[in-house]
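Structure tokens please, single chain.
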Amino acid sequence: MLVHKAYKFRIYPNKEQQILMNKTIGCSRFVFNHFLAKWNKTYEETGKGLNYRSCSKQLPALKQEYEWLKEVDSIAIQSSVKHLSESFARFFNKQTNAPRFKSKRNPTQSYTTKHTNGNIAVVGNTIKLPKLGLVKFAKSREVDGRLLNATIRRHPSGKYFISILVETEVDSLPQTKQSTGVDVGIKAFATLSDGTTYKNPRCLRRLENKLEKEQRKLSRRYKQAKQDRKPLHEAKNYQKQRVKVARIHEKIKNVRTDYLHKVSTEIVKNHDIIGIEDLQVSNMLKNKRLSKAISEVSWSEFRTMLEYKAKWYGKEVVAIAKNFPSSQLCSHCGYRHPDVKHLALRMWQCPSCHRAHDRDLNASKNIEVEAIRLLTVGTTGIA
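Here you go.
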């Protein structure tokens, strides 16, 4: 099966390459914002927006007006116009909000360049990029597949990374004839219907004290820079501390992402059918008591990983409706207990069959049964 797969590596550009990367990021952002403003103005005046083709035709004239746009990779600038067009397409399909202007204050800055006539290539422990030449990178594994594009990102920590998108062949994993239901939570990250439990890694909590300490320092140095009437980019103590805070955030993110990859891969390898709840995480985050704990475990990212890995390897992920009462139903007799809605109730006994239930394990069993039922209905067409 042909799939799109991304390889992410850290790159080590020299000083000249860093300057050109930063220029390309800035030019891509400028072009995106320029055509977004034109798109919005045209819509206000005519009731219709622009399109990729009409914007692309205006690029040569824009380069004549702003000579510095010629210094950077032309494909990267073209890609920013393409991204704007795709953003509007998603907006009109009601998938996302309307595109917003990009800011140089955003923590992560990036640009994308397309593979054309060998302008992107892996050469030993370096990678060839348009306008940049050969850039050193941490080659942790081989890049297999047909190169499509590359995205260069500059993180707040000052590190540079590259994501190489390729089209490659992925073989399906052996069928296990096993199914499972996955109940995600805060106390335990995930509970499977066979009783397997994955602990909550609590990535943020482990470094929270250190993060708070460094953020307080950052706040003091920010105030000092303001008192000295120094621009923040010239305040060396502030910039040093900003990088320290950014690296702690980066570490938290890396630990969490690594854990999610390991858990999702293990579940997909060992099961053919995986039932998950279709949770409205954005609504759940409105709960002030739980929002921090919910953000920390990244349920949405976990579900995304399960879905694309299952698609790659010939497995099936079935999303259960958000109104399905997985925690309230007795997985043995089907009795619905209304009092189990309260999260504080971790163990309960069914009044009908007197079976004792662990809240999370019981929910995962019900999710598995419902996933198989939905899959059967979808296959046979019989409700």
